[in-house]
Input
Amino acid sequence: MIDLYTWTTPNGRKVSILLEELGLPYTAHPIDINKDEQFTRDFLQISPNNKIPAIVDRETGISLMESGAILIYLADKAGQLLPREGEPRYRVLEWLMWQMGGLGPMLGQAHHFLHFNKGAAPYAEERFGKEAHRLYGVLDRRLAEHEFVAGAYSIADIAIWPWVSRFAWQTVDLNQYPNVKRWYEVIAHRPAVQSGYDVPKKTGDIPMP
Ligand SMILES: N[C@@H](CCC(=O)N[C@@H](CS)C(=O)NCC(=O)O)C(=O)O
Output
């Protein structure tokens, strides 16, 4: 049994989608980041950086923060969606790191300046808007030659997809990126993605282009 501490955000949804894909039993504990619940003393014990998501695996006693580390841990535990060795494993990790170090942080800033605080900082809007489009271009070129980012469907796709689901906040038109659009729609129709998207609560339907 896994305890998942999460909220209705891209980083949180990565983990609930993976747990649904793997069919691992879990309990979702909502941490409402709009009410600063991530700063409570109890949550700090599990997530020293005060951010969701975090997990506790009651079977092993291991607790983990950082969604990338959590995805690797759970995929290895189940022996699915992350090849065990060789180039296929490193290809998945390569694109997972691309999401963790590039796509997530840049799109997070795009949400901040283009969606929540439009007009407050024109330079930041231009910088993160441009960077969002550059990254969508990278993803589109990759998906022109591969069905999924690292070949077969993997934790790399699961890490990237919830960020792309906020394309409207990023002022990105998915019709400009036809390979991303094709990939996005295929993943959006997976039953595990639809269930995981609604954890810890339903906020609305999955946005479709
Ligand atoms: N690198 C971290 C980022 C986690 C993160 O930024 N979580 C956000 C929600 S998506 C959060 O908890 N924000 C609350 C805050 O910044 O106080 C990960 O991938 O797990």
In short: The pocket of glutathione is lined by residues 9-11, 33, 38, 50-53, 66-68 (CB under 6 Å). The chain has a mean pLDDT of 98. The longest strand covers residues 2-6.
